[in-house]
Amino acid sequence: MNALVLMLIGLAMFAAGYLLYSKFLSAKIYRLDPAYSTPAHELSDGVDYVPTNKFVLWGHHFTSVAGAAPIVGPAVAVIWGWLPAFLWVTLGTVFFAGMHDLGALWASARNRGQSMGMLSGRYIGARGRNLFLVVIFLLLLMVVAAFAVVITNLLIASPSTVIPTWGAIAVAAVIGQMIYRWKMNLALTTVIGVVALYALILVGDRYPVELPDPILGLSPAAFWIIALFVYAGIASLLPVWVLLQPRDYINGVQLFIGLGILYGAVLLGMPSIVAPAFNDAVPAGTPSIVPLLFVTIACGAISGFHGMVSSGTTAKQLDKESDARFVGYFGAVGEGLLALGAIIAATAGFQTLADWEAVYTAFNEGGVGAFVTGGGEIVNQGLGIPTSLSATILATMAVLFAATTMDTGVRLLRFVVQEAGEVVGVRIKNGLGTAITLAVSLALTFSAGADGSGGMRIWPLFGTTNQLLAALTLSILAVMLLRKRRNPWPALIPLAFVFVMSFYAAIVQLEGLWDDRDWLLLVIDVVIIIAALWVAFEAVIAMNRARNAPPEPEDADAFVGTDSRD
């Protein structure tokens, strides 16, 4: 099959989802009101609560939710064949992820920008809130620790990405000044930022940076990990407009251009997909496609982490409630586009089926390496860009996606620490919250040695935890819609599917951990399963109570709750 056909079908489905389904959700289900005063205005503090242009905010949201997962997951999942991965990415994005992300953003904006963990206290109950916070904390810890390792591995394996990765920070700082201090035209600012980033990519490709071993008494891996956490800690304390917003925005634009390059190469080169639609000859040890497909591709379809970003940082910057459609739903579409590109790169970037099979020799093979190598080959053949530069562009995309997610993850984890403090009656300042976040994250990352491999210690639980969290977020949305006497089925249908598949996967994973005698992960998995079941039980009770209660007035959710700012 020609990859161009797959690309066009996927693009058409995403376009239809945004133009039709997101319009229905915005008008009939969430009833977005452009006149509603959002938390960014009501609680504006110039640090976390900042009214933001919807295009800039979309850049922050898109790059924060994307990360490396929508590349890794689809590029691993094609081991079962390209068709199941394609269907889950496209249908999951249109009907599940867009609804979930837009809904989480709407729900938080209607409740002082509070996270889904705190909202669970209002809509499900105190016990559900406490357990929800446990699941959120574990998920965010997995993300920031693992992504630090992923970025480090990419910086070491692709030294040509070092200059553009760190240079992007300086570019973002200048962009922030241009937008907020100097009030420059956004289009001109965008052009300057993109040109600067691609100039850095050219420089990085020509002058790769490889660290000596040791450096300052540390291995290159340990040095990069510490540097990344120091940067993320500082970035999480700065006002969002100084670094987080402009970095994510300009990266989002640059990354969309990178996707445009990949898709343009498919259009001109029209490579053939060499992988099978359904792979009947999977390597020994490959788990069953059901339910593992639906947790292997988490980000790239629906993802609980998206709800944390929507309700953690994005809702605090929403200028108009009507902007949530573009920021939330189209942010999910952007990630779907990345996942679709990963599927194409990992199935059409090889000359023959034998070449593809030589890479996919076991489950969890492929991943970022298959995306960078396969995508680089497609870009080289379609556009004539040298393979080395093509690989640098795609590897830089992967690093910047992961880095922006790590930035946001550290800030979100600090929010969770502060919210947990509120639950027990302790007020935790930003600095102390960040210190606790960095201490726990670094302890996990280096728990298995100086190479930082501990950062991947609990990563195997990410997929199931992430999807269970998405189901729990959907349960909050369902309760809110039932309270308002609105149609809850757009939330209930994905809720039922995602909960069943992710819970099934957690049980399957539990059996594997028992067989492997991995007691740490076994205990964590049990905690996650119990917490998810308990919250689900509480959610069912809350839904039944909401269905039988009098309808809730439309303005009942306006600015209710505790302000968690300093």
Ranges where pLDDT stays below 50 over 5 or more residues in a row are 559-566
Q: What's the number of helices?
A: 21
Q: Give the C-alpha Rg.
A: 22 Å
Total beta strand runs: 0
Helix content: over 70%
Number of domains: 1
Structure classification: mainly alpha
Q: Beta-sheet strand percentage?
A: under 5%
Assembly type of the chains comes to: single chain
User: How far is the N terminus from the C terminus?
Assistant: 56 Å
What would the principal axes of the Cα set say about the shape?
globular
Order of secondary-structure elements: HHHHHHHHHHHHHHHHHHHHH
Largest sheet: none
Core attributes:
mainly alpha; 566 residues; disordered C terminus; 0% strand; 21 helices; globular
How is the secondary structure organized here?
Layout: H1 3-29, H2 39-42, H3 54-66, H4 69-77, H5 82-109, H6 116-123, H7 126-157, H8 162-181, H9 186-206, H10 220-237, H11 244-269, H12 289-296, H13 304-314, H14 324-348, H15 353-359, H16 367-383, H17 387-423, H18 430-445, H19 462-483, H20 489-516, H21 519-548
Helix pairs in contact: 1-5, 1-14, 3-11, 3-13, 3-14, 3-17, 4-14, 4-16, 5-13, 5-14, 5-19, 6-7, 6-19, 7-10, 7-17, 7-18, 7-19, 7-21, 8-9, 8-11, 9-11, 9-17, 10-17, 10-18, 11-14, 11-16, 11-17, 12-20, 13-17, 13-19, 14-16, 16-17, 17-18, 19-20, 19-21, 20-21
Outline the structure in words.
With 566 residues, the chain is mainly α. It has one domain. It has helices at residues 3-29, 39-42, 54-66, 69-77, 82-109, 116-123, 126-157, 162-181, 186-206, 220-237, 244-269, 289-296, 304-314, 324-348, 353-359, 367-383, 387-423, 430-445, 462-483, 489-516, 519-548. Residues 559-566 have low confidence and may be disordered.
